[in-house]
Amino acid sequence: MELFYSSDIQxxxxxxxxxxxxxxxxxxxxxxxxxxxxxxGTGPLYxxxxxxxxxxxxxxxxxxxxxxxxxHPYRLTMAVCPTKNIDRYEWFVxxxxxxxxxxxxxxxxxxxxxxxxxxxxxxxxxxxxxKQSLKGRIPEVLxxxxxxxxxxxxxxxxxxxxxxxDESLPERHSIVEALKxxxxxxxxxxxxxxxxxxxxxxxxxxxxxxxxxxxxxSRLRTETAALTAVQAVxxxxx
Amino acid sequence: MELFYSSDIQxxxxxxxxxxxxxxxxxxxxxxxxxxxxxxGTGPLYxxxxxxxxxxxxxxxxxxxxxxxxxHPYRLTMAVCPTKNIDRYEWFVxxxxxxxxxxxxxxxxxxxxxxxxxxxxxxxxxxxxxKQSLKGRIPEVLxxxxxxxxxxxxxxxxxxxxxxxDESLPERHSIVEALKxxxxxxxxxxxxxxxxxxxxxxxxxxxxxxxxxxxxxSRLRTETAALTAVQAVxxxxx
Lengths: 238, 238
Known about the structure:
Two copies of one chain form a homodimer. Chain A is α/β, with parallel strands linked by helices. The first copy, chain A, has seven helices and 14 strands. In chain A, α2 (about 85-100) links the parallel β7 (about 75-80) and β8 (about 105-110). In chain A, α2 runs parallel beside α3 (about 120-130). The mean pLDDT of chain A is about 95. Chains A and B meet through α2 and α7 of A and α2 and α7 of B.
């Protein structure tokens, strides 16, 4: 199944933008009368019938709405410091979308070597990964903030976890154990840069009520650590 | 920490091959007297002192042996059908090594589009991933076999799992639940190709005592499914 994306679904009529229209009518050679599946990124899947196959502006009518299509039974924000090599960050974003994540919050830490990030690239990536993995909801890409801003802004009602490597810092729980306390609450996981968090960042997180966690004995790169946290949440619900 | 690899450690003397010697003495400019860390791929880490810094044949003496360096508390064989796009398979092999795996068994199924694989590339990859992630033991890359051969050859004493997608086949358990039955036994996980296993392969696996498992509600690519299984084993032990 191929999913199309549209931000213009009103009154049972779906309009595809020129890029999606060209893909639908020219590349895949869909013609009026064909069935297509469309998402608007907010959750549902719209089963539609193509009524206009213009490759510059295709139009379809909604036949059926499947709510929460490809949804996962948790709400997860991954706050992850960008890696020096941005390909590795983009890889994480793609795989996290495939497994199941609700928001990606790029954060820059005191030890981050990379402080900037192209949000438009990440937004294209989550859209394409959501379509590829048949998800009705596209993860939100939040604006870049500092680790301290993320800590201050994370809702106190959420289960907030900070994964750090420094073994001299306060005792950490296994993320698997920590997730047992989620009990349906939103989950926020904070993952540091290659150089780990600064002691000031860890202190601020603990002060704010973040739970310190570890990701097991393997020495993981930033992006693998972040994906391992997503998997821990995903696997805790299956 | 940088790890060097040597297949020639005898009587407390480590000899590096020309490639590792050049990396040690020319690229990293190590000189006689420097401390270096060496693995032989079987488990231990050797803390050594360089005694000869010839970039064509460096020599070191072993000062200390740390057994089971970077080891994980399980024994896992991942039997995974190669993906059409081989980069995706290599990505899986690299990430699985980083997280923790003991053997990679490439298998070809009835529905596999790719039947050949360059073992030398995979062997270089596991070596470099093991060094990068500071592991004393390099995963074994087994020869390519058919799914049927793998099923027939997997030890009956192991917890053997087969992950398949077809929901019309016998009821599957969550991999998380299935792993609770591991109890220290070797684990073998069989992951099919893009086109899933054939009904004959599933029947043979169930007949042989494989436990049918699912990997949760997300629609995962072959390589993401395989990595999710590695993560499930890893996370079940932390």
